[in-house]
Design goal:
- The protein is of the alpha/beta class and 284 residues long.
- It is 42% helix and 24% strand.
- It has 11 helices and 13 strands.
- Strands 10-9-8-13-11-12 form a 6-stranded mixed β-sheet, with helices on both faces. The protein has a 4-stranded parallel β-sheet with strand order 2-1-6-7, with helices on both faces. A 3-stranded antiparallel β-sheet has the order 4-3-5, with helices on one face.
- Helix 3 crosses helix 4 and helix 5 packs antiparallel against helix 6.
- The longest helix is centred in the C-terminal third of the chain and has 18 residues.
- The two termini are 30 Å apart.
Length: 284
């Protein structure tokens, strides 16, 4: 029986220990800041990126992995006859998933490489990757692994708070909504991604709006506390506040595993300073 290997992109939220333990291949995206291009996670750390972003004259630009890098990775992973499951950030956020599909064709491995749009990113993408990797180590088939991934996708949630809209507007991620929101003073927004589509769920002013956001998310976790095993809290530059939020989740159910980590440059570029997200899914 051929081995199944797991591939993902660098917007994913995984610890170095998880990547090593489950033998996960991470294909890095690129970030260009003031004309200099960095390879995400290779020659640019997450904390250093935030420093450079704040010093940058223009909004950093993110780029999907080059097709050639994907082709090389796929050829290496399948060289021993293995099959590959690739799980990538939402198509609405990046062309990475399409680049991976194209690379599989170029490599002549379309029949051996299975590409999945996670419909989210960060730790939500990480939940899918970890499940796939654990399934693969347990000897499950490709069909069984994909079925388990789809179960996560069906109930996953991203609840994101953006407190400074400058980057999001400059990056064009809000589309037609940008002009209307940009004219409002001290506006913060709550973002969701149902079915992989980035949407403004609510908008309001100041810290009071952010506190109400936290309370809504905590109430949902409370309502589903016996069906939630994992929660990810990812942030751009507010670790202390996020650790406090994690403690509130743990007080709801100490059995919930909460991972608090800085998000990737791919997300931080568009979300901007002060942004954070809470990601989880419910088990059936």
């Amino acid at each position: 029986m051929s081995k199944i290997k797991i591939m993902t992109d660098s917007s994913v939220q995984l610890t170095p220990e998880e990547i090593k333990k489950y033998d996960i291949t991470v294909v890095p995206l690129s970030i260009t800041i003031d004309g200099k291009t960095y390879i995400d996670g290779v020659d640019l750390t997450r904390s250093k990126f935030v420093e450079l972003m704040n010093e940058s004259e223009a909004l950093p630009k993110t780029s999907q992995p080059p097709i050639g890098r994907f082709v090389e990775t796929i050829k290496n992973l399948t060289a021993d006859g293995s099959k590959v499951i690739g799980i990538f950030l939402a198509k609405a956020l990046s062309g990475t998933v399409d680049a991976a599909r194209q690379a599989a064709k170029i490599a002549g491995k379309s029949d051996d490489v299975y590409i999945i749009d996670s419909e989210l990113t960060d730790r939500a993408e990480g939940f899918q990757v970890l499940k796939a990797a654990k399934d693969a180590q347990a000897g499950k088939s490709v069909d069984e692994i994909i079925e388990d991934i789809n179960k996560i996708i069906e109930t996953q949630k991203l609840r994101m708070m953006v407190v400074n809209l400058d980057n999001l507007i400059k990056g064009g991620r809000l589309g037609a909504l940008s002009g209307k929101i940009a004219t409002l003073l001290n506006i913060r927004i709550e973002l969701h991604m149902p079915k992989g589509n980035l949407e403004v769920a609510k908008k309001g002013r100041g810290k009071k709006f952010s506190r109400a956001f936290d309370e809504r998310v905590l109430a949902d976790i409370e309502a589903n506390k016996d069906k939630i095993k994992e929660v990810g809290i990812s942030y751009v530059d507010t670790p202390e506040a996020m650790n406090e939020l994690a403690e509130k989740i743990k007080s709801i159910n100490p059995e919930i595993n909460v991972l608090v980590r800085q998000t990737s440059p791919i997300i931080a570029t568009h979300a901007g300073n002060g942004a954070y997200a809470i990601l989880y899914y419910t088990e059936q």
